[in-house]
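Q: Joint fold for the lines below.
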Amino acid sequence: MPEGHTIHRLAEDYAAAFAGRGPLRVTSPQGKFSDAAALLDHSPLHTADAHGKHLFLGFRDPDPEHTDWVHIHLGLFGKVAFGSAPAPPPTDTVRLRLADDRTFVDLRGPTTCALVNDAEKRAIHDRLGPDPLRPDADPAAAYRRISRSRTTIAALLMDQKVIAGVGNVYRAEVLFRHGIDPYRAGRDITPGEWEAIWADLVMLMREGVRTNRIDTVRPEHTPEAMGRPPRVDDHGGEVYVYRRAARPCHVCGEEIRTAGLAARNLFWCPGCQRA
DNA sequence: TCCTTATGTACAA
DNA sequence: TGTACCTAAGGAC
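A: Joint structure:
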């Protein structure tokens, strides 16, 4: 399941598997993308791009102005699965399958899978905030919005217009790592705090792309370093607070708290993240 | 077999 | 603020 690191990793994986390898079979077994798939069938993938949680696959003409882009957003449920040829018969939930003589990849359950032109793609970039995983990102643009806002920093970090790619896990974890109460207003975040949060997100999310999971626990707080038994978090990575409600904080021992905020679950340690 | 939950977003009221 | 949408896994029966 996807935060920005997943999407950037997928862009790398799609490009590594298919870019420059010649024409692909493009199909939509489920049927909801059939017309566009028919248009793209037997054409090459030449590039893949990611901004926040949005993925773009560039087909047909390599000149960006004339590229046909498949815009994908996984939403909460979307999944992508790569495999080696020969591809098995697709199940009826496969929205998009790309295949050549060595690889296939299936997309299921995306909230968005649509053909867009370059102008439409640019419009999507324009409504997204800076992405810690993109080299062109300007963290000052995010801080301008945060420093003027009465909204909580927890909500601002999830607002893709403010900063693109951060989801519920990175939000909870980066606020913990900086000892910041999630309910503090954006305008109370200092320039120094924002600089540190941004730098940390760049580091954490790059590591997330590399390992394809979210790990946020510093070496000094691993179970081995703390002299505790190994632990297993139920979402594939080692974290401080995400989905650890009512369990003891790895650092101070207080109970991790949880609360609903804008239809999502927020997690924080009241001991380490004081108001 | 049914119910709940999930790393997300858009839109209506 | 509530609801709709998309899928699959895990747990309660």
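Q: Anything notable?
A: The two ends of chain A are 31 Å apart (CA to CA). The longest strand of chain A covers residues 45-51.
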